[in-house]
Amino acid sequence: MDETSKITITLDGDVADLYRWLRKDPEVTRDVPVRPDEAADAPGEMGVTFEAVVAVVGDVLALGSLLFSVRDWRAARDPGPAVTFERNGVVITLKDDSPETIRHIMEVLSDQADQ
Question: What does pTM read for this prediction?
Answer without folding.
Answer: 0.85
